[in-house]
Amino acid sequence: MIIRPEIKDDHDAVSETTIAAFEDHPYSQQTEHLIIDELRKTGALKVSLVAEVYDQVVGHIAFSPVTISDGTNDWYGLGPVSVLPHLQGRGIGSKLIRAGLSRIGNGIGGSGCVLVGPPNFYSLFSFKRFSKLIHEGVPQELFLALPFAEHVPSGIVEFHPAFMQLPEVEKDIMADVIIDYAISGVRVNLENPAIQSLIQKGVLIKMPGSKVKIRPAVLRGYNPYFAKVAQFRTTELSRVHKNPIMMAITSSTL
Question: What one-character-per-residue DSSP string does the chain give?
């Protein structure tokens, strides 16, 4: 097995490996390959290594910059990291992690690395919990850091916006909500887990009568195109709602 930087010809294999690795993961939203694509597209995929066996990509790891509210620079986020299911448990992921951390610390002058993951595993690589480093939206015992120097930052840590991806099922729901959108909101099944997830993310707001409204500003962080369409739809509906003539025309066509 060799570990090397990815090349353009690896992109499809990296996506396939990532999809396969997370297919049955209990906490995955099946967006990991989309995260990598977006990191690559925006130039934020600062370290991207593949594990190769007999000319086949069998594993991958990504590192991208994070922002820390105290202004500290040169810290990176680890992940996603993936290994083909039938090869998991053979140390390939560990080798990718060690190679990636070495590239971050010694290759590009990183000051530290953070991740969200199980402490019992990542403690093997000297990651641990630092109470003054916080990543909102996850149990803090799962947010771990590895400083490469004595200084440990203090503040809120945010991963690259590429990590804010909507799963396909949530994209389908948002498309339906945008199409059916009305000033008073859209009636939905509030028991639907995908609807509940969108409400929890703040993309949708619960209204009386089992209805929801869209928050385009929040949606923009997850899907700029959907946000643009939703904003246009909301603006047009507001314009029609305020114009009696347009209201009459619209009503007569229903």
Answer: -EEEE--GGGHHHHHHHHHHHHTT-TT--S-HHHHHHHHHHTT---EEEEEEETTEEEEEEEEEE-EETT---SEEEEEEEEE-GGGTTSSHHHHHHHHHHHIIIIIS---EEEEES-HHHHGGGT-B--TTEE-TTS-GGGEEEEESSS----EEEE--GGG----HHHHHHHHHHHHT--TT-EE--TT-HHHHHHHHHTSEEEETTTEEEE-HHHHHHH-HHHHHHHHHHHHHHHHHHH-HHHHHHHHHH-
Q: Where are the domains of the chain?
A: 2-163, 168-253
Q: How far apart are CA 234 and CA 126, in angstroms?
A: 49
pLDDT in tens, 1-50: 999 999 999 999 999 999 999 998 887 888 999 999 999 999 999 999 99
As a whole-number percent, the residues of the chain with pLDDT over 70 amount to: 93
CATH number of 2-163: 3.60.150.10, 3.90.1150.10, 3.40.1190.20, 3.40.630.30? 3.40.630.30
For the chain, how big is the Rg over CA atoms in Å?
Answer: 22
pLDDT band at residue 254 using 50, 70 and 90 as cut-offs? very low
Q: Is the dihedral of CA 22, 24, 28, 31 positive or negative?
A: positive
**Is 114:157 a contact under the CB 8 Å cutoff?**
yes
